[in-house]
């Protein structure tokens, strides 16, 4: 960037001060116009040329990359005119040194901005050995932001004359203390990497782990955030999740319902068999169920009832749809009981009173 500034300065060295001021102002306006044009018009022009990109993730990526790229033109529009201002050399020399350092920091910031936008909006972004795209995006985006901030701070420190090498050496001497203090954080970080590699769940999955059940909202370096059915946000350390039992409800392809129907002991055998046949017909012909997996069996005798085991699997794994199917079938079972003249049994106790014999 200093080479470009020096080239422009060499071309202006023979011009009069007034023309130098006008040229610097015009140069700024040119780059400012490029910034406006690229920021607000470039993506639309490209989409007109390549219409198949419209409405896709590539359009989102292009729109996300446009602001940081346009900011680079604005940075040039500020740097080049200020670098070549027609002022006294004793003022221009320190100004150029300051501008060079500021331009370097600006470039670091723009590159970090570009990287974050690319990681966040890149279509089909995933690694085969890591977890889902969204989890990897968030982890890489946070890592990239931290690295950009660290490099910017180090560059700024070096720019103002701080001994950066001595600071880095000091951090090395205090590494033992930091590692001891960050022991739990390091354990959670590596546990988070294990979760990404093994892929037991992804963002948006419904899981049960560590005594918590809900939807995964985020997987960070330290913890996993789970939104429960009570709409509370539970933050569970990654070490706790990776060390315990994880049940991923979103990976199921069907849902099972199992219930026991209790029938009164006075029910005739013919009526009981007719009820079971009607139940098998009802469940086997239902289009929302896997008919081949349906089970209707006379399970045994309880203290106050004869028990019929009913088990079926719904084709949908969605919980709300499963509840709707179960409700519809329960109402249909009630109609079968009434039509076949069979009554439900309730827990009851029969008491026999023995009268004392008269002598």
Task: Describe the protein in words.
- 14% of the residues are buried.
- The chain is built from 12 helices and 8 strands.
- β2 and β3 form a beta hairpin.
- The chain starts with a helix and ends in a 19-residue tail after the last helix.
- α2 packs antiparallel against α4 (57-83).
- Mean pLDDT is 77; it is low at 124-131.
- The longest helix is centred in the N-terminal third of the chain and has 33 residues, at 89-121.
- The chain is of the alpha+beta class and 359 residues long.
- The chain has 3 domains: 2-123, no CATH class; 127-251, SH3 type barrels; 255-340, 2-Layer Sandwich (Alpha-Beta Plaits), CATH 3.30.70.
- The protein has a 5-stranded antiparallel β-sheet with strand order 4-3-2-1-5. Strands 6-8-7 form a 3-stranded antiparallel β-sheet.
- It has helices at residues 2-12, 17-40, 42-49, 57-83, 89-121, 133-159, 164-173, 175-181, 183-198, 238-243, 269-284, 319-340, and strands spanning 206-209, 212-219, 223-228, 233-237, 246-248, 255-263, 295-301, 306-314.
- Helix content is 58%, strand content 14%.
Number of domains: 3
Tally of helical runs: 12
Q: Specify the biggest β-sheet.
A: 5 strands, antiparallel
How large is the radius of gyration? 36 Å
CATH class of the largest domain: Mainly Beta
Q: Determine the structural class based on helices, strands and strand pairing.
A: alpha+beta
DSSP, total strands: 8
Element-by-element helix/strand order: HHHHHHHHHEEEEHEEHEEH
Low-confidence stretches: 124-131
CATH topology grouping of the largest domain: SH3 type barrels
The CATH architecture of the largest domain is Roll
Helix content: 55-70%
